[in-house]
Amino acid sequence: MFIPHTKAETEEMLKSIGVCNLADLFADVPEKYRFPRLNLPSGVTEMEVLSELEDYSQANEPVSELVSFLGAGAYNHYIPAVIDSLLRRGEFYTAYTPYQPEISQGTLQAVFEFQSLISNLTGMDASNASHYDGATATAEAGVMAYHHFRGKRTRIILSPAVHPQYREVLCSYLCNYENISIETGSKEKGPFENPSELIPLIDDQTALVVVQYPDFFGRIFDYRILAEKVHENGALLAVVANPTALGLIKAPGEFGADIVVGEGQPLGIPLSYGGPYLGFFATKKDLVRKMSGRLVGETTDAQGRRGYVLTLTAREQHIRREKATSNICTNQGLMTLAATIYLSLLGRHGLKQVANLCYQKAHYAAQQISTIPGFELVNKEPFFHEFVVKCPKPVGEINRDLLDNGILGGYDLGIDYPQLKNHMLVAVTEMNSKDDIDVFVELLREAGND
Amino acid sequence: MTEPTIYELSSAGRIGVRYPESDVPAFDIPDEFIRTDLPLPELSEVDVVRHFTHLSTMNYSIDRGLYPLGSCTMKYNPKINEVTSRLPGFANIHPLQPIETVQGNLALMYNLQEQLKEISGFAAVSLQPAAGAQGEFVGVKIIRAYHQSRGDTRRTRILIPDSAHGTNPATSAMNGLEVIPIPSDSRGNVDLVKLHELCDETVAGLMLTNPNTLGVFDENVIEVIETVHKSGGLVYGDGANLNALLGITRPGDLGFDVMHFNLHKTFSTPHGGGGPGSGPVGVAPHLVDFLPAPIVSIVEEATDEVPPLYGFTIPAKTIGRVKAFCGQFGVMVRAFTYIRMHGADGLRKVSEYAVLNANYILSKIRRKYTLPYNRSYMHEFVVEGCWSDAPDVHALDVAKRLMDYDFHPPTNYFPLIVHEALMIEPTETESKQVLDKFADALLKIAEEAHSSPELLKEAPHHTPVGRLDEVKAAKELVLCCWLPDRN
Known about the structure:
The complex is a heterodimer of chains A (450) and B (487).
Chain A: H1 7-17, H2 46-58, E1 67-68, H3 81-87, H4 90-93, H5 105-122, E2 126-127, H6 134-148, E3 155-158, H7 164-174, E4 181-184, E5 206-213, H8 224-232, E6 236-241, E7 259-263, E8 279-283, E9 296-300, E10 306-310, H9 317-320, H10 333-369, E11 376-377, E12 386-390, H11 395-404, E13 407-408, E14 411-412, E15 423-427, H12 434-449
Parallel strand pairs in A: 1-13, 3-4, 3-5, 5-6, 6-7
Antiparallel strand pairs in A: 2-8, 7-8, 9-10, 11-12, 12-15, 14-15
Helix pairs in contact in A: 3-10, 5-10, 6-7, 10-12
Chain B: H1 6-9, H2 45-56, H3 79-84, H4 88-91, H5 103-120, E1 124-126, H6 132-149, E2 157-161, H7 168-174, E3 178-182, H8 192-198, E4 203-209, H9 221-230, E5 234-239, H10 251-254, E6 258-261, E7 281-283, E8 295-300, E9 309-313, H11 329-365, E10 381-384, H12 395-404, E11 411-412, E12 421-424, H13 432-451, H14 453-457, H15 470-476
Parallel strand pairs in B: 2-3, 2-4, 4-5, 5-6
Antiparallel strand pairs in B: 1-7, 6-7, 8-9, 10-12, 11-12
Helix pairs in contact in B: 5-11, 6-7, 11-13
């Protein structure tokens, strides 16, 4: 299969080494624990494994066979055929991290282009080569801010409208830092507080304020005044952005973000049950050297030919060791390639078109749902492609009915916010036709009548 | 050969992909939010396909040839993995779907947890960590949480041998622990005398890579682990070198308390030019309650009529969540495919041949390259890439010259404890013929280092670019390109 040795070759190799058999190669392993009998089913052929894996996959109900209105951090977008066709080139996916630049220019230039696209999309000066996902990118923003102030500013303020799992991950990353204090919004206002309500919390001990754009509930806010207040207090502002939305709405760089992070999955990456996804991370020029993760820079060889290398590696764990601010090495390489191809292919017009389709269809859905007795569109603020609906009964119950009719309903916000029982977060993308939306609305109407 | 960037290829007005017109009534977007400037390139589909195809030809890859990077386990990535992971029933699943609609995924994850437990000898496994470094972070966080849960707050130091993986010190620092290095002894094992001296009530644990980055199995591993345990500390195993141990020994049986796996090394999932990885964590019984949440469990036992219902549970003293959603699921499908194809016998064969291949190369080149420790090696080994009678030549030159022979170079300058290190890990998927050619190239280069060192110093000669100016890259720091109208 994947081990090519013939019996004769193995014999010859053992002889060259000077041992009698394969078992002799393991003399250093304590005898008592050597060669355990593993209780695993026998290996199978390719033909059999494919059939077995097909059985597993068929025990699922994929979004492709349903009509989905589920988002909450992972979105069902169309992925043009070009992307997977190029990702399947073994020259890309069977290469390692580009430590030897002379024979890794393909990967290096693609990462350089990824950094360029993300910088341009977010309105920032520089981007790194990726983090694991949107949640860990957000956590790394917290880590970076803490180290930027050398631990002298110990407060991190999170908007309650930042993705609940991202907030959780940020806490896991930072909870062992000295004197750290991580606060989620103002207690009395609840999840729907506006960004202006974060302002009184900011002081000279604040290292970082984190908001989401559009926020977890889909709402779009102008963060300009918040950014000013953050900066007046000498702190940093991190914005968790949806990259599709940035095809339509202002870049966070325009309203004063210092760090822009986010989940790159909407950029041509399959839903794949939550991973592998892509965390992007971009900053202003003066923070570049504080950013963790790999960076690719442009340079030349002795003949003056342009080429690309991993640069500023002195910040990284393998050189700075315990003084490094992050231990990240393997990142989401192939996923950055997917996003790079997606953004290159869609370009200026395509991304705007996708974003606009999402916006239009989501607004149509919201308008139709708001006409159903018993259902209420909760937020009055402008929104992008997600919105919150208050339902006349538990979301789980409604979703079960929807599923019986081939529809994957929205996210049950009661899971993360106890005050938001019976609140559904609905996501609409270019994948949802007007007919899909009309059927969804009709089924909600019926569910309301039961 | 240089390829223009996508921004240089951009031509205003060109379209790469079309979408259907909107089929709903028009809604206005508030003016104050509208983006007026979207500086993305404009290319056709053909432009994009050719550009990335050109770029791909500038890469070395496993599909092209031997990739003997030490500690990276660059084995062949079976093509079937790419088929199974893309099955529509896996690729099109939203991470927040109700569990009743994702029983196939949950069953696969549950069975992968069970397989990894059996392979490693641990009591429980979490699949959540995104990569080896995050698995390490989780492992050390669990150790810290364990001591804290017992009110043992004095344990703020962690011991790390000088032969451990490079990420270990940063991982410990991220967990707020002070790093105490331990030297290796004359055979490349942990220095036992020093270990006994350092183990006290302030030590949270030891991070042990075994086989270590020299490629040797610690001959005193049981005593090392017992020493740490006696002082109240725990032992973390860096699973990056697990490819030497499948069916050979189980870290859980040896006494390790916690270890991460690298699915993208040991279990053949592709490295993707730098990711995605997947770094599940296994723990001994006393640490099960600390695993990151959630983990996949059977929430309703099977009956005669119905299969079990799989779902998520949250361990009682969990260290929390380290990643959104359910981990790197697509990577798990690939690893699961690989483990199913091998079974117990196949996995043992993987490690046997990985170790055979490494020792075979060593047997062919050892008369020309200095070996810092004269003993048997596991799946990788380290030699010095320099000679006292060829003073101008360094490990880097040997590495670059290997490219002229159409091989990817080994890891160089790591581990730090070997002078001018070349760290070679061929993996089990390379044939004797390939290894012979590689060994011949190394022997030829050793000769050239003495007869015509300039060949090494100026190498590589046949790559798309020559050695690149890294100082200039760091100094000028050009990290992005822009559309020509910017600035």
